[in-house]
Design a protein that fits this description.
There is one protein chain. By secondary structure, the chain is an alpha/beta fold. Helix content is 39%, strand content 16%. It has one domain: 3-Layer(aba) Sandwich (Rossmann fold). It has helices spanning 6-28, 54-62, 77-88, 102-110, 133-139, 159-166, 172-179, 217-226, 241-244, 246-259; strands spanning 39-43, 66-70, 95-100, 116-122, 147-149, 154-157, 185-186, 204-209, 230-234. Strand 8 (204-209), helix 8 (217-226) and strand 9 form a beta-alpha-beta unit.
């Protein structure tokens, strides 16, 4: 009778081994990829307003994203960050925050907001804590001599040089219009030291404009490398790269939206 129980014992052991093997296989199965981020907030830089984002906006909306364009006042760095955070508070979930030029400094601060899961820099400043745009610009000088200052401390670009320095790859008529429709920018924003650097804790993407005369492309490369950003370089692109190369810029933003939640 004792030996009659052996087959039952062996069957039980075999069943247990099969159960453990199945459990191990389930554990080893890769986790499903995170769903793409639906919300995107676009932040403009100095001397312009949010209208320049329209070519990128149109592509992103057509591809099914919910896109908001921040219209910050360019009166002071804190004013601009507050304005962008106001837009972030209106989002209904995870958000990709995109900044062009000076807008990069703004998103590096506003990007600490809990809504933000990824940052995209388009020919933009990605300041570290304590840095200023003016000081970094001296380390990597740009090629423009167009910057002028008003009596009350606001900066603008001399319209005579705007097309060549800011928008060399835009149609002449468009560049001339933008030169005469500038949003004057408080000089203080370029000397305000950064107090946050969201790129240190959140994944980032970066587009270098290889023909940029407003921000030295080598400074852009430094920012991208330091932030460990997923980086592309766009040949022949002026500082207005977000207008002149909207397909490449939109593709980079969509890459961020698709991968931010499973990135670093």
């Amino acid at each position: 009778m004792k030996f009659a129980k052996v087959p039952s014992l062996l069957a039980a052991v075999s069943l247990a081994c099969m159960t453990l093997a199945m459990a191990g296989s389930a554990t080893a199965a890769p986790a499903p990829a995170a769903a793409p981020v639906h919300n995107i907030v676009l932040v403009h830089g100095a001397f312009v307003n949010g209208a320049g984002w329209k070519p990128v906006y149109d592509i992103l909306v057509k591809d099914g994203y919910h896109v908001s364009v921040a219209q910050h006042p360019l009166t002071a760095f804190n004013d601009d960050v507050t304005a962008v955070k106001r837009i972030l508070a209106m989002q209904d979930g995870p958000t990709i925050l995109v900044g062009h030029s000076y807008g990069g400094a703004v998103i590096s601060d506003a990007g600490t907001d809990d809504h933000v899961v990824g940052l995209v820099y388009i020919a933009a400043h990605a300041l570290d804590i304590g840095e200023t745009e003016a000081a970094n610009g001296k380390l990597y000088p740009n090629l423009t001599k167009a910057v002028k200052k008003t009596a009350d401390g606001f900066l603008y670009l001399d319209p005579a040089f705007y097309a060549a320095d800011f928008a060399a790859d835009l149609p002449k008529a468009q560049a001339e219009f933008e030169a005469n429709a500038q949003s004057l920018t408080s000089a203080s924003v370029f000397t305000t030291a950064a107090t946050s650097a969201a790129w240190k804790t959140k994944p980032s993407w970066y587009a270098v404009a290889k023909a940029d005369r407003i921000i030295n492309p080598d400074l852009e490369r430094m920012y991208a490398k330091r932030a460990n950003s997923h980086t592309i370089e766009i040949a022949g692109a002026s500082h207005s790269v977000y207008e002149s190369h909207p397909k490449e810029v939109a593709a980079l933003i969509e890459q961020a939206a698709k991968h931010a939640l499973d990135a670093k």
